[in-house]
Structure formats: structure tokens, C-alpha cells
Design a protein that fits this description.
By secondary structure, the chain is an alpha+beta fold. The protein has one domain. About 25% of the residues lie in helices and about 25% in strands. A 3-stranded antiparallel beta sheet has the order 1-2-3, with no helix packed on it.
């Protein structure tokens, strides 16, 4: 009788250890930001032009006229400011 309870305890302990092991080995998901970073790079003649920005996602929101009122200044991008870089001097 004692052997049966010992064997049952060992089986239960092995089952619990085996069931908990995969849960501990799973890694956390690295979910994307709500406004994801993006970069565009293009060579024009001898100059590399790089634009780095964060794309604001609409996600069911009304943007124009609600989040961004009409007639107000709105900056392009989200999170960080949009950057435009040139590899050589340019005249704008």
C-alpha cells in the first residue's frame, strides 16, 4: 500500500513538473510598438537621402478633424520627430 502511494506521488510530481516546464521555457512576445519605426533610403545622384520616421497607426481612430483638428499644425510621424539626412551638402 505504501509503495502504491509513493508511486502515485512520483507520477503526480513528474506530471506537474512536466506540465510546468513548457510554460517556463516560453519567451515573452516582442510586440511591435503602436507607432512603428520606419526608414527610407534612396540614392539621388551622388547623395544618399535617408528619412527616418515613426508611422502613426490609425487603429480605428478618426484622425483628421478629431485627433488632429482641421487648421492646426500637425507634425509628420509619431513618437519621435521625423529626420531627413543627406550624405552631401544640399540646397533646399
Amino acid at each position: 500500500m505504501k509503495l502504491k502511494s509513493l508511486l502515485l506521488s512520483a507520477v503526480v510530481a513528474a506530471f506537474i513538473w512536466g506540465a510546468a516546464s513548457p510554460a517556463n521555457s516560453q519567451t515573452d512576445l516582442d510586440l511591435p510598438l503602436a507607432s512603428q519605426a520606419a526608414q527610407v533610403k534612396q540614392r539621388l545622384g551622388v547623395t544618399d537621402v535617408t528619412i527616418t520616421y515613426h508611422r502613426p497607426l490609425v487603429n480605428g481612430r478618426k484622425i483628421w478633424g478629431a485627433l488632429v483638428p482641421f487648421g492646426q499644425v500637425w507634425r509628420a510621424g509619431a513618437n519621435e520627430n521625423t529626420r531627413v539626412e543627406f550624405s552631401t551638402p544640399v540646397a533646399v
